[in-house]
Design a protein that fits this description.
Layout (H helix, E strand, L loop, with lengths): L1 H12 L7 E8 L5 H11 L17 H6 L6 E8 L5 E8 L7 H9 L3 E7 L6 H12 L3 E7 L8 H12 L7 E2 L8 H11 L12 E10 L3 E10 L1 E3 L3 E4 L4 E4 L2 E5 L3 E4 L1 E3 L3 E5 L13 E4 L18 E7 L5 H14 L4 E7 L3 E8 L2 H14 L4 E3 L6 E5 L4 E4 L11 E16 L3 H10 L3 E7 L4 E9 H5 L2 H8 L5 E12 L1 E8 L2 E2 L5 E4 H18 L7 E7 L2 E8 L15 H21 L6 H8 L3
Parallel strand pairs: 1-3, 1-4, 4-5, 5-6
Antiparallel strand pairs: 2-3, 7-8, 7-16, 8-15, 9-14, 10-11, 10-16, 12-13, 12-15, 17-19, 17-20, 18-19, 21-22, 21-23, 23-25, 23-26, 24-25, 27-28, 27-29, 27-30, 30-31
Length: about 625
């Protein structure tokens, strides 16, 4: 082991020409074995020792380990000795598989020349496999198909190979067979990476052009930016400029991304590395920005990736109102590591000051909330999530509505448009009926139905985005017994009959529980929210009326009965008028208390509204 480490270290410091560098990422559907296969590649190349190895080595977040999913893309460099004796540097970027983290995949793809397309030999092509493949093909990446989990008795190599050939038009010989669990076929995969993926292109003597594809916050070192060098060379101590912000910095420390960051004197064209330059403010680093030299600036910036478009919006508020600034700093630091998170300040009558945050989906929202609590020790309340709408007033003004409180008065509205998505669902033929019923219930319109094999069907639907925000994915898995896979992309806005549903407590509106919803679903949702709040709001000394309303019209009501003190307990018999006098006095006191009493809505009530189904 000492010999391997010594040899690797010596090799790492040698000059590597661009022909011997390979940049590649791993793309796949959820649970198809990306992270496990990445572990085997790291082992086979000696990038990590057996002592350092643990399951899902690159998934360094506690959340990733607990849930068994990849949330962040992770870059790591390996050294590999080819069978012909040549030495190669392999830069691997492991990517997430869940649709909510597809932005992470697009950032990884932008820094690579090739991709390993991992397909589970027991499950075959799934929706996210196709989506990630198209992302890679749009960037002209070389695709290496790999059949994973070949060690399982339920593997169907011939059937799944047919699906891969139909999908990407490759030859059967191009498909590699491997097992991330046993290590079978890993050497073949490494050889294919070297032989099939092209080396980076770029002029080492041209001005420096490096693209930032990720960044992290370190409390001791400041902000660390990860980049890929497309031309030129960056050296320690160079004066560099971030072209998007126009700010200049000294490259205090540069290096490459091995299991731990490893310092270097220079990072050359085609390589992936990191830079530490004492940046303390999160806004100064933008993912997709171009790094260049101050004295020899590149004339054209690298075309970074598009700005992310959030799909789901929700308010995040601190439980303690004096923690507002602390929450802002936490969100800024989190945004560094998660460029798909957007936020802006907002206020609520019920919750005080907070932020309106944009997410790519409900899982993304859940992960952000959990990371705020774990990494920054912030206890937060999240409001009912909703999507963004376009409202057109009778005066011809166009309004963007991301918050129910921004929804204009219905008398001033001409029409409202809501975002629609094109959804691809791949399921077993047995469950086509139940999946169709679910989609039609969610106001979906069937566009296409294709039999991929005799037993697997691809269904295409146009569905309002608002309908899939809450519970669609969970219910899809339930009705298909876990077999269905789901992917979607936005297709624009369409007119819809939307109304604002308000929740009132004793006549006072709780704006944090307001929601924009289709008119047909308003009564059902209003009834559910009222029933749930009645269970969760603690009883007071006065009666609490919980009402759901559209404008001035009450559509549902529940009542939390008052706690009643037995004021006649001290009366032992005697005149009934004495008891009646005490009861009348109590009644007046309750009436007065109801006018001045505040109804506290516990955080569990806000959370329960998100999980009504």
């Amino acid at each position: 082991m000492l010999y391997i480490t010594w040899k690797t270290r010596i090799f790492a410091y040698l000059f590597m020409c661009m022909e011997n560098i390979r940049n590649f990422c791993i793309i796949a559907h959820i649970d198809h074995g990306k992270s496990t296969l990445a572990d085997r590649l790291l082992q086979a190349t000696g990038a990590i020792s057996d002592r350092e190895l643990k399951e899902q080595t690159l998934d360094d977040m506690d959340l990733e380990r607990e849930r068994g999913i990849t949330i962040k893309s992770h870059a790591i460099q390996m050294n590999y000795k080819h069978t012909d004796g040549s030495e190669y540097v392999l830069n691997l970027i492991d990517t997430p598989g869940h649709v909510d983290f597809s932005y992470e995949v697009s950032r990884s793809i932008a820094a690579c020349e090739g991709a390993l397309l991992i397909v589970d030999a027991t499950q075959g092509i799934q929706a996210q496999t196709i989506s990630n493949l198209y992302l890679a093909l749009d960037h002209d990446l070389e695709i290496i198909p790999v059949l994973n989990k070949m060690d399982l008795p339920s593997a169907m190599p011939e059937e799944v190979s047919d699906q891969i050939v139909d999908l990407i038009g490759c030859d059967y010989e191009d498909i590699l067979k491997a097992s991330g669990k046993t290590g079978e076929g890993v050497d073949t995969v490494l050889d294919a990476i070297v032989n099939r993926i092209p080396s980076p292109k770029g002029d080492p003597k041209a001005p420096l052009r490096a693209m930032i594809f990720d960044s992290v916050f370190n409390p001791f070192r400041g902000i660390i930016a990860y980049y890929r060098v497309f031309s030129g060379e960056i050296k320690q101590g160079d004066k560099v400029k971030f072209m998007n912000t126009g700010r200049q910095y000294d490259a205090d420390e540069i290096g490459v991304l091995r299991l731990n960051q490893e310092k270097r004197k220079s990072v050359k064209t085609g390589d992936v590395g990191y830079i530490i330059s004492g940046i303390k403010v999160a806004k100064e680093v933008k993912v997709g920005d171009t790094i260049t030299h101050v004295d020899r600036q590149t004339p054209d910036a690298i075309k970074g990736f598009e700005d992310v478009k959030p799909m789901v919006f929700a308010g995040i508020y601190p439980v303690e109102t004096d923690e507002y600034e602390e929450l802002r700093e936490s969100l800024e630091k989190l945004q560094l590591n998660d460029a798909s998170l957007t936020f802006e300040p907002e206020s609520s009558a019920a919750l005080g000051f907070g932020f309106r945050c944009g997410f790519l989906g409900m899982l993304h929202m859940e992960i952000v909330q959990e990371r705020l609590e774990r990494e920054f020790d912030m206890t937060v309340i999240t409001t009912v999530p909703n999507v963004s709408y376009n409202a057109r007033t009778k005066k011809g003004e166009d309004l963007k509505v991301t918050n129910p409180s921004e929804f204009p008065d219905p008398t001033l509205l001409d029409y409202v448009e809501e975002p629609y998505i094109s959804a691809q669902i791949i399921t077993k033929a047995d469950f086509v009926g139940t999946v169709m019923t679910l989609c039609i219930e969610k106001r979906g319109v069937l566009q296409n139905q294709t039999y991929l094999t005799s037993d697997r069907v691809e269904l295409s639907f146009h569905i309002p985005l608002a309908e899939i925000v809450f519970d669609f994915y969970d219910r899809l898995k339930t009705v298909s017994k876990g077999y269905a896979s789901f992917d979607y992309h936005p297709i624009g806005y369409k007119q819809s009959a939307l109304v604002k549903l308000d929740i009132l407590l004793n006549g006072d509106q709780v704006d944090a529980l307001s929601a924009l919803i289709h008119r047909d679903n308003a009564f059902t949702l209003g009834k559910k929210i009222c029933a749930k709040l009645r269970e969760l709001i603690p009883r007071q000394q006065f009666e609490i009326a919980i009402q759901a309303a559209i404008g001035n019209k009450i559509i549902a009501r529940e009542t939390v009965r008052a706690l009643r003190k037995d004021v006649t307990a001290k009366c032992y018999g005697g005149d009934i008028s004495r008891k009646r006098k005490l009861l009348e006095k109590q009644k007046k006191g309750k009436k007065r208390m109801r006018q001045v009493g505040n109804v506290e809505v516990p955080q569990s009530a806000f959370m329960a509204v998100l999980q009504l189904d």
